[in-house]
Design a protein that fits this description.
The protein is mainly alpha-helical. The chain has helices at residues 18-30, 37-76, 79-92, 95-105, 120-148, 156-184, 187-214, 220-247, 253-264, 298-315, 332-336, and strands at residues 271-280, 283-292, 319-328. A hairpin with a 2-residue loop joins strand 1 (271-280) and strand 2.
Length: 342
Amino acid sequence: MGSQHGHGHAHGHAPASRWARARHVLLHAFTPHSHDSADRFDSALEASRQGMRTLVWSFAALFVTAAAQLVVVLLSGSVALLGDTIHNFADALTALPVGIAFVLGRRAATRRFTYGLGRAEDLAGVIVVLIIAASAVFAGYEAVLRLIDPRPVGHLWIVALAGVIGFAGNELVARWRITVGRRIGSAALVADGLHARTDGFTSLAVVAGAGGVALGFPLADPIIGLLITVAILFVLRDAAKEVFGRLMDAVDPATVELAERSAADVDGVAGVSQLRMRWTGHTLRAELAVAVEPTLTVEAAHRLAHEVEHHLVHAVPRLAAAVVHTEPVIGAQQAHALLGGH
């Protein structure tokens, strides 16, 4: 006998105050709570809202950073800093594809897109990875060009200060995006945070180059630019690993083990097998089979499957739904053999 189902769970909300958090806990403990598709959508929607808030405020921070650098460019006439400023303005716009992905991910599933449009985040992550790669190419090109044709830099202390401002602003945005991205399970937002970190490295190149020029070594600027290009390539590797791993349905093995242990802890479950998990946007879905006593009725097996899913969505972070298949402890292989030749 078997039971298959998949429904969501409304967890992952972030109350704004201690009183709201306490009220949330009390309501959850003493009132019935459902696990239908609307609840799952609400949970995903809250995560998307967190992501959108992060994108909006981090975009504002990057814009202010680039604007401050532009003021210094106008005062110093530094071509190097002008390039970094234009770069920061352009990179602030990388929030656009991720923001579009969050908006698309809020749409409910349809008959055509039965899992919704959560995977738009993965596509946005690919775009961010491509932009990081373009940043590495641009930085490397500029460094080589300056080795061939060195350019004088004036107002070195002001230029260095603007570089520090650029690094601080980008690093702040990077930590913000990476922290929230990992909290809500968004690989695209994490990649965008890593991208902001590469921009901080570019700004540091301006500082280091200005310092080298001040010490009488004019080639310091392009040499350090090459080193920063290498650093950007390492960041590119991490971002690509994060995004393309998500595209290939990679899940942390520790999360899989947690799901297996949690399902096995439910009373009535004699074994867990065929567990598979995948990300859809910033939520997880799972499929698994649980072995039960063959004497259970269809109704009892169905109820047990619901209990397993209920336990899983409480125990596994970011898990929105699970399809639980029940099978008898003895004799299940006979039914499996029906599909053996397909």
